[in-house]
Design brief:
The protein is α+β, with helices and mostly antiparallel strands and 426 residues long. The chain has 15 helices and nine strands. The strands form two sheets. A six-stranded antiparallel beta sheet has the order 4-3-2-1-5-6. The chain has a three-stranded antiparallel beta sheet with strand order 7-8-9. Strand 8 and strand 9 form a beta hairpin. The protein starts with a helix and ends with a helix.
Length: 426
Amino acid sequence: MIRLFCRVLSVLILGAMGARADDVIEFLNGTTLQGMVVAIHKPQREVEFAATIAGKQQTSRYPYAKIHAVTWKGKRYEVTPLPVGAGVFVADPAKRRTAGEIKQVILDYGSKPPVWLGETALDYPKTLDLDWPMPAPKGWNNQKNMGQYIWDRINPNESRWRSGIRLMMHVLEERASSDAALKKRVQDSLGAMYFRFFQDYPRAAYWWEQAKVQPGSENSVGLAECYWRMGNKSMANKMLGSRTLRLGKIKLLGDMGETREALKLADSYASRVQEPHECLLLAGDVSRQAGKFTQALSYYQKVIDLPKMKNESYDDRHRARAQASIDSLKQVELLNLGKIPAGTYKGSSLGYEGPIEVAVSVKGARITKVEVTKHKEKQFYSAITDTTRQIVKKQKLKDVDTTSRATITSAAIINAAAKALADATP
């Protein structure tokens, strides 16, 4: 297979790849990278690959020894077989698994560290307080306060994700053995990091189970999603069964195809709170995902029609999101890639922390690249790459799934892309 891979890619003129951005490298450590194969260097046994990493265009050479497989022009070539115990697991809700099988997946994959962990250097400010006291000391100091360091330095910086997990393991080994509260805090954080950064559901589930996450608790929706992504909806529903409402529960029920239940929950919650903005936005997003566009428009309009709140910035942010979603839905219905001239077009929409700017490249009636060029998001950063990748893969904006627990960021990217393409249409 390696020889076939080299022969095929060496014969073809790779210069023709200039407009492509949907090739994929699967590494032996379980991570993937989407971009463009630039060249195959046979003597050096390397693949030269161009990709956007942490918002920057980079071209790097990757040795065959680190590559499991390469997908080029829709065809997948295996380069190096996975080593035993590599811990690579592809989540697929359509592949149904029993509760016993899910437990085995978590044991086989989730309980074992990824290959890359042993190669990741321990890198953190020496001023950081590894005791992680709660409540946190007053004031903002992301070089001392662990929670602030994770929020401000690790979450938005993809290059720090692995070292963030390495840091959590270090704290667990060095500080948490005699401190039950700290131990649970670290285990919860490990579950959240594997979930948010890598969509590594077996490892996220393992660490949340170690933390004894219960239905209705802060991370219960995340653990429920892990069970569903690994193939067991009944385990997910059991974890969601608490009467305690987490807004993420509405989103997950929608993802699981439980649209009626999701909207029933959203309507019930909206009728009982003074500020139902986010709940109604989620209901609109669930309806949109289910293809119920008239219903989605109705929910978004309800947000705009709500009475003004005292918190003007909160009020304005949610109204802006609702209006952007309304505009996006109307633009998507009229979208015709065949009418858009070749070029790169820009649009922006409001995300969680501020405007998200997106550049969409079109050539030959195809979306060749979608890139987030500017943002201030500090959580669920994986949506930046996941949502843009889906748009290119699906070649449309109507059925793009919003990333796990990252609805606001994902929706903003979709809305910004819709605006860019609408403005490009003659």
